[in-house]
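FW: tagging you since you asked about this chain on Friday. Here's the raw sequence from the shared folder, copied in full. Didn't touch anything.
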Amino acid sequence: MQLGAFSISLAVKDIAASRAFYESLGFSVFGGEQAQRWLIMKNGTTLIGMFQGMFEKNVLTFNPGWDSEAQLVPGFEDVRSIQNRLKEQGIALDQEADAGTTGPAYITLTDPDGNAILIDQHV
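HL: got it, structure written out here
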């Protein structure tokens, strides 16, 4: 199963303070809008999303169809296919994608330790 680019989505309390902290670790802004209280920070191939007031806790995020540069990966596995494979394995999903659609969609699930997982396809 190919889940695409990986990032951690952090539920931050102060986006400006978090940005400054991660910049001191060598990260730079890759995407997002600080005024809208969300940023994507990058250091090499490592991605960190920062979201103020959007999530209750941190989220493991995968993006089918994208590499770490947000470039299209040819022949990627669609999120609906991933959804079907997970369900076949008996893994419960918190939110499902509409199987009758194509293109952008997402699913969510929770690991055994309560960590939220977002599989978010943008293409």
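FW: The two ends are 17 Å apart (CA to CA).
HL: agreed, and The mean pLDDT is 96.
FW: great, closing this out.
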